[in-house]
Structure formats: structure tokens, C-alpha cells
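Reviewers asked in the last cycle whether our approach scales beyond single polypeptides. To address this, we selected a multi-component target totalling 257 residues and predicted its structure end to end. The input consisted of the following lines:
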Amino acid sequence: MTLENLQFAPIGLLQDKVAVITGAGRGIGRVIARMFVAEGARVLVSDVSGEEQDTAAELGDAATAFRADVTREAEIAAMFARGLEVYGRVDAAIHVAGNPGGRWGDEISEEEFDAYTSVHLKGMMFCCKHAVRAMLPGGGGAIVNFSSAASYNYDPMISFAYSAAKAGINSLTKSFAGKYGAQGIRVNAVAPGFTLSEKNQSIPEQAAAVLRAKAALDRAGFPGEQAAVAAFLASDRASFVTGITIPVDGGWTARLA
Ligand SMILES: NC(=O)c1ccc[n+]([C@@H]2O[C@H](COP(=O)([O-])OP(=O)(O)OC[C@H]3O[C@@H](n4cnc5c(N)ncnc54)[C@H](O)[C@@H]3O)[C@@H](O)[C@H]2O)c1
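The resulting structure, written as C-alpha cells, was:
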């Protein structure tokens, strides 16, 4: 295994689990879908882009594609209903859909603010709401929300609206964990640092170098490194872990003053 081709040998971590994964058309979400299937899960792979079809085709019988826009509650409800219809239950919901990027700092228009908060914060609220409703009849489950290292502090290279929406996801994670823990539902979040999903492989080298250098490990992360933590949190091995946001950032947040 090299860092450039990061893969982990499957150990059956998610054997016989059913997972709904948003943002699974590309990037980190697609790698999560691959890893979940490799670990024994069946997955409903969802995206707004149409690329969820490619992910499902790649994964074969273990995957079902579903197109849903996470800014629309009715589409989220339909996504979980489809998961229940196809697989009979939902054990895990991995909420990865997002639109990272945007203008730095407060140089932001009202439209951009609405777009960020709508996808990240509103989308996460209703994904969690309907994930819980899909899981309760089965006796519980695990939710993993995708936040960001940007949720913790000011960074001059990141949109204020994006950071604020991601900080809201950390809060939603605790709220849902607190309300539904006694009913067997665990809710956690992953906060990635700079990670080489496809779109980040083509950003200008000058910006990439600054972002890489933020990590104590002095490098970017790989989507598989995010997927591995999501898989652990979705698995029974994390049975006493709930209500937390885990930075998966090579030590970026450890260096924040
Ligand atoms: N890559 C990073 O460096 C990084 C760092 C911190 C946090 N994150 C977070 O991790 C997640 C994945 O990041 P990525 O780099 O893979 O992003 P990406 O842009 O490569 O993939 C995001 C996916 O979400 C989908 N999506 C966007 N809006 C949607 C909507 N309204 N409804 C449904 N699907 C929608 C896109 O179509 C795409 O397939 C995001 O939530 C992002 O904010 C990423």
C-alpha cells in the first residue's frame, strides 16, 4: 500500500449492513460507497448529479442508485423510502453531499449564502430527520455526517458561510445523538482537512501547497482515509461512540491556536 494508492484490506467491518450514502456520485462519497461494499454492505448511492448511476454500475448487485437533491426534504424522504423498499431496513446513513468551495471570507453574495446553508445545514437537518425515521423500526442505526476542519476556526482561505454551515452540522450531530441515543441511534461527524477528491486534484499548486502545509503530517489526505473513519463510525466497533465530530485532517485542527 502506498499513500498515493491508499486502499485497506477489507475485514468484513460492515457485513450485511445496509447504508444510504449521499454525495456518492463522485469524490469522498464515491470512495465511501466502494469501501462500504468491499466491507460487506449493500448501499443506496445517492447524488443530484446523475453520477450516482456510474457509482452503482461500478458496484453491481450491492448497489442501487437514487437521484436526490438534499436541499429538498421530499426528495430526502423518498431516498430513505427507496432504501427501505429495496433492502428492507437502513442500518447506516452517510451524509456526504456538499458543495465545497466558494469565495473566501465574507466576500459572499446572498445567493451564495443561501446555496451553502441550503445544501450543508438544511440538507443535513432533513437527512438526519429522515434517517432516524428509517432506522427506528429496525431498532437503531448509525449516522455519519460530513463536516469540515473549517467548522472549528477562522481560516482566511475558506468561505465564512461554508464554515458556519459546517459548524451547524457539528451542532446537529450532537442534537440528534442526544435525542435518539436511547433508541439505539448513534450520530457522529467526520471533519475532513484538505483531501484529494477529484476536484482538489486540479486546484492551483500554489493554493494546494498552502493547504497541504496546514496539516501536521504536511500532506493532503486521501478519500480512502475519510472513508475508513466513516466505515468505523458506521460499524458495531463504534458501539459506544456517539455525538462527536472527529477531525480527519492530518493534525490541522491540532495546530489551531
Ligand atoms: N475534499 C475536501 O478537502 C473536504 C474538506 C472538508 C470537508 N469536505 C466535505 O466532504 C464532503 C465531500 O467532499 P468532496 O471533496 O468529495 O466533494 P465533491 O464536490 O467531490 O463531491 C460532492 C458530491 O455532492 C454532490 N452534491 C452537491 N450538492 C448536492 C445536493 N444538493 N444534493 C445531492 N448531492 C449534492 C455532488 O454532486 C458531488 O457528487 C463535502 O460535504 C465537503 O464539504 C471535503
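The first strand starts at residue 18 and ends at 22. We regard this as preliminary and will revisit it once experimental data from Aim 1 are available.
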